[in-house]
């Protein structure tokens, strides 16, 4: 009699779990894997090994969140698996496998290990979707941080370019003035030697013009 009951229980247990997992059930979650979009040609095919990995990762996720409650892969129940990979799953209590773990606990556990889950399947928040669990605040905050960093980088870059241009033009102006001054000095020295009044005036006048218009400076000076 007792044997019969035990056999009956063992036979019933998985049936009960499978019954718990239904599309839209309160504690169930829908998952969608977009392998083609994420991996293109290198996309692996979803099979029972991948299913096993998912169960193992979820059991790990639950253990990690609950501080080592003894979740096994048998506590992760999958149902309604479609070819273009999506399915529903539900987590059952390690103490009593006919009692589902509240969805809020599972949700927190998944958020807690989202990166580990993603990386186990070489996917990200967009290509591995938990439909009832929108991407975490953490990733949104990171995203904002990234765009701020980009904006900051652009502004700093522009400021640096402006500073370089300013310094560059300053140096160029300084060099031009210096050469004009040097040439002026050379000319006055020459004129001290020749002591010619009229040319002296002409030279000073053209030098002054040259000072105002640097481009023509050398042309004017080479005449002498
Ligand atoms: C889910 O699977 C069950 C059992 O295979 C089936 O009866 C049910 O119609 C499926 N539900 C959906 C929404 O595909
Ligand atoms: C498991 O939970 C079910 C449903 O709440 C209950 O009927 C059953 O007695 C429990 N089994 C054990 C071993 O606690």
Tally the beta strands: 4
Helix content: 55-70%
Overall mean confidence score, pLDDT? 78
Estimate the global geometry from the Cα principal axes.
Answer: rod-shaped
What's the helix count?
Answer: 8
Which ligands occur here? 2-acetamido-2-deoxy-beta-D-glucopyranose
Widest β-sheet, arrangement of strands: 2-3-1-4
Q: Approximately what portion of the residues adopt beta-strand conformation?
A: 5-15%
Order of H and E elements: HEHHEEHHEHHH
Largest sheet: 4 strands, antiparallel
The tally of domains stands at 2
Distance between the termini: 127 Å
Radius of gyration: 40 Å
Structural class by SSE content: alpha+beta
Stretches where pLDDT falls below 50 for ≥5 residues?
Answer: 5-14
Summarize the structure in words.
The protein is α+β, with helices and mostly antiparallel strands and 224 residues long. It has two domains: 9-135; 140-222, no CATH class. It is 63% helix and 9% strand. It has helices spanning 2-20, 35-39, 48-65, 103-112, 114-120, 137-194, 197-212, 214-222; strands at 29-33, 76-82, 86-91, 128-130. The protein has eight helices and four strands; from the N terminus they run H-E-H-H-E-E-H-H-E-H-H-H. Helix 6 (137-194) packs parallel to helix 8 and helix 7 runs antiparallel to helix 8 (214-222). The protein has a four-stranded antiparallel β-sheet with strand order 2-3-1-4, sandwiched between helices. It is rod-shaped and about 115 Å long. The structure holds 2-acetamido-2-deoxy-beta-D-glucopyranose (2 copies). One 2-acetamido-2-deoxy-beta-D-glucopyranose is lined by residues 23, 79-80. One 2-acetamido-2-deoxy-beta-D-glucopyranose binds at residues 23, 79-80. It is found in: Cell membrane. Residues 1-18 form the signal peptide. Residues 25-221 form the Collectrin-like domain. The chain crosses the membrane at residues 148-168.
